[in-house]
Amino acid sequence: MRMRLRVEQDVFTLRQLGREVARAVGLESQDQTRLATALSEVGRVLLGEGSHAEVTFTLEPYGVPSLRVTMAHSVEGGASRLAEQLQQVGRLVDTMEVDDGGSGTTIRMARRLPPGAPALTAARMDEIRAGLGRHVPGSPLDELAVQNQQLIAALDEVRAQRDELARLNAELEETNRGVMALYHQLSEELEETNRGVVALYAELDEKSVQLRAASEAKSRFLANVSHELRAPVTAIIGLGRLLTDSFSDPLTEEQDRQVGLIRTSASDLLTLVNGLLDLAKAEAGRIEPNWSEVDLKVVFGQLRGTLRPLATRPEVDFVVDEPAVPSVRSDEVLLAQVLRNLLTNALKFTEAGSVRLSVRRAGAAVEFTVADTGTGIAPELQERIFEEFYQVPGSKPVSGRGTGLGLPYARRLAGILGGGLRVDSTPGTGSTFTLQLPVEP
User: Fold this and answer.
1) Going edge to edge, which strands form the sheet with 53-60?
2) How far, in Å, CA of 405 to CA of 401, rounded?
3) Greater confidence, 437 or 407?
4) Which residues form the Histidine kinase domain (predicted)?
């Protein structure tokens, strides 16, 4: 669509035509007004330059659909001056370019079509051309009336936006007051909570000190009592041995039986006292490991020899496998003590089947396993067996008597050696105790 801009009357015609074109291609009402205002302002400036202009309306359907307007006039070298004069006009359109060509200055403006605009098909283009061809320009008074209506609508919209902005400001101010009140409330509650937390930490520190003192007192008590009991208990065992010695006066059958009971009870008591003393030392941190390269073949051989007398029942196979790991860096005495406790405990509670000791490499650790075919332990009791003096309800040792101190002591020694002790057990099938130690503690 083209028109020529020659006299001031044509500015009104250009404004009307620009608004009609914008309406026909689907621009919204405000965008129609913006484009029409931009065209009339540019037309006024060009006529002020004393030269006519050619105006061309073009639809660009590809990429980003847009309406483009090109205004060319014959005055050359005025691009920079026009660009400065039309700087405010450029805000009414999406893009605006002013440059000098071979035959004059050209002004290009573009406005993007909204997403909901009708598709620019060939039939639609023909329809737009036909509608614009039937357009009859109005008089300047008609255009002034339209401008007044648009101005009134714009003022109403501005007033509505101003009222909405005032309402939003009032709501924001009210919200800010609520937020500040909530902030002060939360600050006070947080301060109160902090005071409570500080007091709680102080109480916890005090309780920790008391608990540490109680633990030290318990360890000292166990150590002192165990030390004081060992001497008389050992004396009772020695006296019982003297009474039954062949060089002593013969005892009656009943006296011999009673002395045997005394010796057995004293031996059990001595075992308990020794266990308490060992446990007290471990809890007090008085056991320092002596790190060295431990030959596991030697350790396994000693355990096989010292525990063989306990495996006297033919129903139980006592097996100490050849170690699959030749050596490990640890404390030989403490390591042997842990394995001895586990094997002794397994032999006590295994009525038939086997008790087996083996070792294997597991990544950066070494795992010693003591597997038995005893009665097994229920899942909910598998951690309680590592508590002092705890014994599984209903469990009866096949040989000897349990004190409930062997497994707690073994776990503490495992921790001192830098590892851990765990159990996997199924009732009626047996238990597997695993001692895991690092290769390099």
Assistant:
1) 2-5, 53-60, 66-73, 105-112, 95-100
2) 11
3) 437
4) 224-441
Distance CA 265, CA 29 (A): 108
| C-beta of residue 437 within 8 angstroms of C-beta of residue 365 | yes
Alpha-carbon gap, residue 378 to 360, rounded angstroms: 26
**Which pLDDT value is given to residue 299?**
92
DSSP string, 265-322: HHHHHHHHHHHHHHHHHHHTT------EEEEHHHHHHHHHHHHGGG---TTEEEEEPP
**Shared domain check, 236 and 175:** yes
Residues 6+ apart with CB under 8 A from 436: 362, 365, 366, 367, 368, 414, 419, 420, 421, 422
CB 230 within 8 A of CB 271: no
- Amino acid letter at 335? L
- DSSP secondary structure, 250-261, as one string: PPPHHHHHHHHH
How many CA within 13 A on the CB side of residue 1? 26
327 and 400, same domain (yes or no): yes
Residue 394 has pLDDT above 80, yes or no: no
56 in helix, strand or coil?
strand
Amino acid at 312: T
Percent of the chain with pLDDT over 70: 85
- Looking at per-residue confidence, does 432 or 440 come out higher? 432
Q: For residue 423, is pLDDT > 90? A: yes
Residues 202, 217 within the same domain: yes
Same domain, 240 and 218: yes
This model's pTM is above 0.70? no
CATH assignment of the domain containing 92: 3.30.565.10
* Same domain assignment for residues 131 and 78: yes
Q: Are residues 81 and 214 in the same domain?
A: no
For 62-150, strand residue ranges (E) read: 66-73, 95-100, 105-112
pLDDT for position 222 = 63
DSSP code for 387: S
Place of tokens 């208990």: 233
- Cα(360)–Cα(432) distance, integer angstroms: 14
Give the separation between CA 366 and CA 327, rounded to whole angstroms.
10
Residues 166 and 210 in one domain: yes
- Cα dihedral 272, 275, 276, 277, rounded to 10, equals 120
